[in-house]
Write a structure and sequence with these properties.
The complex is a heterodimer of chains A (108) and B (119).
Chain A (H helix, E strand, L loop, with lengths): L8 E4 L5 E6 L9 E5 L6 E4 L13 E6 L2 E6 L8 E9 L4 E4 L3 E5 L1
Parallel strand pairs in A: 1-9
Antiparallel strand pairs in A: 2-6, 3-4, 3-7, 5-6, 7-8, 7-9
Chain B lengths: L2 E5 L2 E3 L5 E8 L8 E6 L5 E7 L6 E3 L7 E6 L4 E6 L8 E8 L6 E4 L3 E5 L2
Parallel strand pairs in B: 2-11
Antiparallel strand pairs in B: 1-3, 3-8, 4-5, 4-9, 5-6, 7-8, 9-10, 9-11
The chains are: A mainly beta (108), B mainly beta (119).
């Protein structure tokens, strides 16, 4: 079965840039997206189709893709960005949805 | 405003059954595929099942195949998840989520409903 791999945790100082990676076989061929989940809340889509940002999501959130790895970058990280982040891909051949294991972003 | 409101969760004994509902509003329900995604306590997100906009095509994670059934009533703008032969490992918050029109991700999520499987 298809798997997505994320680092369990990433730490960043306020105002600095945080990068969270997501690796999967031929991930570049699938539309990767990213969700932010704050404690006790539902996930929120922050990046879709590798690089696009939904309306209402701050410009400091960006996404990129290179081969087997998708990256979520948060520039000028703020305390409010502290959350769990999940990547997700959709296998169009099976219609199965796969989530990465999640990355806890700590802003300290 | 798009809203997804889950209901039907609760405590159930191992081997028991439960039906979750997700009432949708604020968008044309018949145009969108829908899914259930769950999250065990302290764990990550796990896709459970998806259903096409028409209701004719269904998809299930291996962990629930044969035990769970996803369905929809487009006349009531409601998504369902029938869960049978429940196990302790099915304990989770269950989210209803709307698929984007290209099917690749979820743009709206419900607030989630807790299902606890325990004796």
């Amino acid at each position: 079965s298809y798997e997505l791999t994320q680092p369990p945790s990433v730490s960043v100082s306020p105002g600095q840039t945080a990068s969270i990676t997501c690796s999967g076989d031929k991930l570049g061929d699938k539309y990767a997206c990213w969700y932010q989940q704050r404690p006790g809340q539902s996930p929120v889509l922050v990046i879709y189709q590798h690089t696009k940002r939904p309306s209402g999501i701050p410009e400091r959130f960006s996404g990129s893709n290179s081969g087997n790895t998708a990256t979520l970058t948060i520039s000028g990280t703020q305390a409010m960005d502290e959350a769990d982040y999940y990547c997700q891909a959709w296998d169009s051949s099976t219609a199965y949805v796969v989530f990465g294991g999640g990355t806890k972003l700590t802003v300290l | 405003e798009v809203q997804l409101l889950e209901s039907g969760g609760g405590l159930v004994q191992p081997g028991g059954s439960l039906r979750l509902s997700c009432a949708a509003s604020g968008f044309t329900f018949t145009s969108y595929a829908m899914s259930w995604v769950r999250q065990a306590p302290g764990k990550g997100l796990e896709w459970v099942s998806s259903l096409s906009s028409s209701g004719y095509s269904t998809y299930y994670a291996d962990s629930v195949k044969g035990r769970f059934t996803i369905s929809r009533d487009n006349s009531k703008n409601t998504l369902y998840l029938e869960m049978h032969s429940l196990r302790a490992e099915d304990t989770a918050i269950y989210y209803c989520a709307r698929k984007t029109l290209d099917y690749s991700n979820y743009d709206y999520w419900g607030q989630g409903i807790l299902v606890t499987v325990s004796s």
